[in-house]
Structures are given as structure tokens and as C-alpha cells.
């Protein structure tokens, strides 16, 4: 209630049941949010465990394969030694073939370097089809340098004081397996992200339907008692024994209730936007508000817009937003302080900024990140809905933005509304 400040007597008090209901609704809305972030954490932890498990498992496979490949290269070294030392007999070719096949099976690239550092036989090194001898030697040299960095060489003793070394690198399979977990992780993250987007947009659409249904039903239900109340007002008026000022006061409240009902029934329907003189609307509405709040709250409008500047908006909804932000500001200042409303159009941007700054108690960063969640309120009697609705009105219906520009505990808060200066009129 605007008039509820410590220094003023409240105009009327909320019924205790209404307070209880507001607290229940708030709690259930906050529970829904807490539950959602709980599920987010659970899914996140499961993904993390899966990813770590997959990384460990693949790492184990990589190690095993690496050891096996090293053994194969040792076998190749052994084969070379055997070939050099063995007397040529009929089994020679068969044995050599077995050794060759073993190395070829894993496709391990390997180069034998003799005691004079001259690279000789090489295995599984790919060359272009037509290639000169020099070009071939250059490629072998390049691969050799790479291999030197990858694994320590395997010595080959070929007897008679001669020795050589085999340099090798990982097979294609092993290299692929090394990168596989990262690929797998990226795909998992991408799928997770896409699923989250799909899920959250479906949830938002569902939430919107619930909001609209709730608002329209409330408006509908309020219609009957309101017209009955109006009839009672007429009845009181016609009775000369009743003080006419009572009927007048009740009528004012009934009219206000009717206005609120109309606003609720308008939620969900596409509002008509018109080009309106923004500065005039804000100035008039602020002076209307000023009369209704504590006289200890000083309002000031700083208009830096050109006189002819208009904005496309729905006047009723826009005023509702200003009212909600100012009501919160008055609450945050405990009914004493200043509210500065600044209107400006940044150069070259097709935008209008409306800053509403108060000298209230301010918010912490953690608080500020939650204030647009339905049900978040630090007030005993708050529903935690004012800012949620305000944000929807500005962002969904006016294609604008509403956010906390800055807030400092003990100093005050500034909200910024951004409206488009030239959005296309909806039909
Ligand atoms: N100007 C402000 N300064 C400090 N805190 C603010 C300000 N505006 C909003 N808040 C915080 O944000 C919360 C949510 O505001 P919101 O208007 O959505 O709900 P409410 O005012 O608590 O209840 P209601 O639904 O009746 O508006 C407030 O309870 C308050 O803690
Ligand atoms: Mg509020």
C-alpha cells in the first residue's frame, strides 16, 4: 500500500487471511524456483560424473594401447635384428612377414635410423603418389623430428658392433582415441545445452499460459461482487440517513478495484500500442502518484527528451509499471526520501531510457539477481509479483528492457526501462 509508511497511518490494513495467502503463494512460487535449481544441480552433477568416468576409462584404454604399440615396435626391432643376423634359409620370408604384419596391424608409423643416423626402412609413413627422392627424404626427416619428441627410441642391436634405433609415433587409432573423450564431452554438452533450451522454452510457454489463465479467471470472478458493490453504493447514496461521504469513499475504492480487474483481464491479450508523448505521460503520472504517497517522499522528473519525442506504448500498462517501481522505491525508503525520474535518449541509439532512482536501502547483488522471480519478496505483506509483471509488460509487450541499473546497500537503487523509439506498430 502506497500510504503505508512509518510516519503515516495506513489507510486500511490487509486482512490476516490475505497476508497468510500472500505468504503461501510466495512460498510455493519460491519452492518451484528452488526445485528447478535443485534439478539443474542434480543433472549437472550426473553429467560431470559421466564425463569424468568417460575420461578415466578412455585414458586407461589409451595407456593400454600405448603399451601394446610399444611392444609391437620392440617386436619390429627384434625382427630387424633377426633379419640382419639370420642366415638366409627358407623360413626367413615367413618369419619376416609375421613381424611385418604385427607392426602393420596397428599401422604404427616407425623409422629405423642406423648407427650413422641415416634413416632407412620406414613403416606406415604416408607419401604423396608422385614424389621425388629428395621430397621423400625431406618428409622422412620431418616425421623423424616429430617422432623424437613423442617417444624415446627403441635400440636395435644388429651385432658386429653395429646398432640402430627405431623411432615411432602413435598409431592413427591411438591418436583418435586420445581426442575422443573431448569430442564426446563437447557433443554431450551441446546436446545438454540444446535440451535445456528446448525444456526451458517449453516451461516458459507453460508458465505464461498459467499466468494468463490465472489473471483472466481472477478478473472474471471479481466482476460479480464488484457490480453488486456498485449497487450497494447506489443504495447508500439514496438513503438520506447515511453520511454521503461514506458512499463516495466506497465508490472510489470500487472504481479502483474495477481498474485493477480490467488490468488483470487485459493480461495475455495483445495490448494496443500507440505513439504517446512520453515526457507528458510520465510527468502527469508522477504528479498523480505524488499526491497519493507520503509528503516526505520528494519526486523529481528530469526530462532530457525533445518535446516532440514520442514512444510506442500502452499507456495503462506503462503507468502500471511506473507505479510498481515507485511503490517499491517508497517501501525501500521507509516513506522518506527522493525519487528521481530521468528521461533521456542516448545519441544515435533508437532508444529511450527511463531511469527511476531512489534513496532507499538498496540491495545486495544476490538480492538483485532474484527480484524478477515471481514470489521473491523481502516484505511481510509482499506478493513478490510487482516486478515480475513489470518486466513482462516492458519486455513482452513493448519489446523493451527492464533491469536494475545499479544498487548500493544503504544508498539506493536505480531501475532502468529501455523503450524503442521507433518500433513497428502492432495490428
Ligand atoms: N527500489 C528498491 N530498493 C530495494 N529493494 C527493492 C526495490 N525494488 C524492489 N526491491 C526488492 O525486490 C523485491 C521484489 O519486489 P516486487 O515488487 O516484485 O515484490 P514486492 O514489492 O515484495 O511485492 P508486491 O507483489 O506487492 O509488489 C522486494 O520485496 C524488495 O526486496
Ligand atoms: Mg512491489
From TrEMBL:
GO molecular function: kinase activity
Enzyme Commission number(s): 2.7.13.3
Enzyme class: transferase
Superkingdom classification of source: Bacteria
Residues spanning the membrane: 38-57, 179-199
All copies of domain Histidine kinase, residue ranges: 217-423
SUPFAM superfamilies associated with the record: ATPase domain of HSP90 chaperone/DNA topoisomerase II/histidine kinase
Catalytic activity: ATP + protein L-histidine = ADP + protein N-phospho-L-histidine
Segment forming the signal sequence: none
Keyword S-adenosyl-L-methionine included in the entry's annotation: no
Protein's UniProt keywords contain Nucleotide-binding: yes
Keyword line: ATP-binding, Kinase, Membrane, Nucleotide-binding, Transferase, Transmembrane, Transmembrane helix, Two-component regulatory system
PANTHER family: C4-DICARBOXYLATE TRANSPORT SENSOR PROTEIN DCTB (PTHR43065:SF46), SENSOR HISTIDINE KINASE (PTHR43065)
The protein's name in its UniProt record: histidine kinase
Natural source organism: Dyadobacter endophyticus
Taxonomic lineage: Bacteria, Pseudomonadati, Bacteroidota, Cytophagia, Cytophagales
Gene that specifies this protein: porY
Amino acid at each position: 500500500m502506497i500510504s503505508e509508511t512509518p510516519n503515516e497511518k495506513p489507510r486500511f490494513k490487509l486482512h490476516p487471511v490475505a497476508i497468510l495467502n500472500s505468504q503461501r503463494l510466495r512460498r510455493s512460487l519460491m519452492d518451484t524456483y528452488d526445485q528447478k535449481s535443485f534439478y539443474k544441480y542434480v543433472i549437472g552433477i550426473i553429467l560431470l560424473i559421466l564425463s569424468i568416468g568417460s575420461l578415466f576409462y578412455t585414458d586407461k584404454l589409451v595407456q593400454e594401447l600405448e603399451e601394446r604399440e610399444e611392444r609391437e615396435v620392440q617386436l619390429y626391432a627384434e625382427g630387424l635384428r633377426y633379419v640382419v643376423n639370420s642366415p638366409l634359409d627358407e623360413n626367413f620370408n615367413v618369419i619376416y612377414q609375421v613381424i611385418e604384419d604385427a607392426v602393420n596391424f596397428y599401422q604404427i608409423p616407425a623409422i629405423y635410423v642406423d648407427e650413422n643416423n641415416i634413416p632407412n626402412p620406414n613403416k606406415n609413413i604416408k607419401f604423396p603418389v608422385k614424389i621425388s627422392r629428395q621430397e621423400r627424404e625431406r618428409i622422412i626427416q620431418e616425421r623423424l623430428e616429430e617422432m623424437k619428441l613423442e617417444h624415446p627410441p627403441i635400440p636395435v642391436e644388429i651385432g658386429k658392433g653395429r646398432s640402430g634405433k627405431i623411432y615411432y609415433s602413435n598409431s592413427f587409432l591411438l591418436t583418435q582415441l586420445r581426442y575422443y573423450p573431448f569430442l564426446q564431452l563437447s557433443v554431450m554438452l551441446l546436446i545438454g545445452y540444446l535440451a535445456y533450451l528446448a525444456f526451458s522454452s517449453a516451461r516458459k510457454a507453460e508458465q505464461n499460459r498459467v499466468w494468463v489463465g490465472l489473471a483472466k479467471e481472477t478478473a472474471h470472478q471479481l466482476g460479480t461482487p464488484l457490480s453488486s458493490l456498485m449497487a450497494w453504493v447506489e443504495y447508500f447514496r439514496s438513503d438520506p440517513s447515511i453520511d454521503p461521504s461514506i458512499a463516495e469513499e466506497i465508490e472510489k475504492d470500487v472504481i479502483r478495484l474495477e481498474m485493477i480487474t480490467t488490468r488483470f483481464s487485459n493480461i495475455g491479450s495483445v495490448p494496443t500500442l500507440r505513439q504517446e508523448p512520453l515526457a507528458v505521460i510520465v510527468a502527469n503520472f508522477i504528479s498523480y502518484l505524488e499526491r497519493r504517497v507520503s509528503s516526505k517522499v520528494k519526486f523529481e522528473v528530469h526530462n532530457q527528451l525533445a518535446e516532440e519525442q514520442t514512444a510506442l506504448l500502452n499507456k495503462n500498462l506503462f503507468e502500471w509499471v511506473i507505479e510498481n517501481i515507485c511503490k517499491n522505491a517508497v517501501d525501500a525508503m521507509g516513506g522518506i526520501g527522493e525519487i528521481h525520474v530521468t528521461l533521456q535518449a542516448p545519441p544515435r541509439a533508437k532508444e529511450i531510457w527511463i531511469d527511476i532512482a531512489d534513496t532507499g536501502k538498496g540491495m545486495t547483488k544476490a538480492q538483485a539477481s532474484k527480484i524478477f522471480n515471481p514470489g521473491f519478496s523481502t516484505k511481510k505483506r509482499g506478493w513478490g509479483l510487482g516486478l515480475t509483471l513489470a518486466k513482462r509488460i516492458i519486455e513482452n509487450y513493448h519489446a523493451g528492457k527492464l533491469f536494475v541499473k545499479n544498487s548500493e546497500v544503504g544508498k539506493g537503487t536505480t531501475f532502468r526501462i529501455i523503450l524503442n523509439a521507433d518500433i513497428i506498430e502492432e495490428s
